[in-house]
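Sequence of Trifunctional NAD biosynthesis/regulator protein NadR (Saltatorellus ferox).
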Amino acid sequence: MTPGTERTRGLVLGKFLPPHAGHLRLLRFAEQMVDDLDVIVASVASEPIGSELRVRWMKELIPGATVHALTDDLPSLPEQSPDFWPLWRTSLLRCLERPPTHVFASEGYGAELARQLGARFVPVTRPGTDDEGPIATSGTAIRRNPWEHWRHLPDVVRPHFLRRIAIAGPESVGKSTLAARLAKEFETVWVPEYARDWLTREGAPMDGETARVEPGDMVMIARGHAASQRALERSANRRLFVDTDALATTIWCEFLHGQVPEEVASIAEAEAPDLTLLLDVDVPFVPDPIRYLPEERRRFFDRYEAALQEAGRPFALIRGDFEERFRAAVDAVRAVPPPEPMP
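Predicted 3D structure, token representation.
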């Protein structure tokens, strides 16, 4: 701001349902043009993505701006009410600490909105195309088919439209190998089992050649695995493959310690995989310092299958040699539908 001049304050109004690359360009342009920027997320209760989540997204996407939620029940179009503009003007000004000096928009309503608020209108043209097609798209198009417009979704938004596939089962049934192969097949990432990282860390206690597992370790394993999944969700391409899950950790607690820590149970209950690939025990056992129950694999499999049924989680049984398992897993994953179109 030049000394002696009024501090400029911009306004960007939108539904951000969801935020996409076009919004980001508009917001970053606006942020460079004014001293302060207000972003208003307008929503109604009937919309498919809630206001709270959208506001959280916007705060992360444009941290230098002040983000406001507007949840008033307002008409969507001028022809719906003769008081359309007075109603919107009143609601918008109530949200803001001070009126804007500039209004930024790439839609036709921007000029009139600026006039109603006594501000200067700054048009922002839509970007063009690149080798993959249009650089920007619309929220309507994304809601109809989020996966088709994946590249337009900011990283913070992508987990909302992600499909999560857990690969689970007893010890030594090829979970990690299958997770890695599936991630390569579907051009995405996979979450390694955190138990291995934790139990093989430097200085971890050992019982001979086997890593010792205490009840507190199970809590750390469940926490670490959940954190690993969250850390990778934004890097995933439509699908995320997860080697083991917290439900399996609860069963390990039962088998090794006879009880499940409350925190581990809570983490398992919060999981919501779209599909679990349950691997059978029809492949040879391979010893390892963090494998404990070679004679209990069938019982573990049966208990895990029962736990999946009790939790109401969709799952597919995966059997056969490693190639048969891979082909069956690919078919099961392809059968998981993408996100449903939203209005």
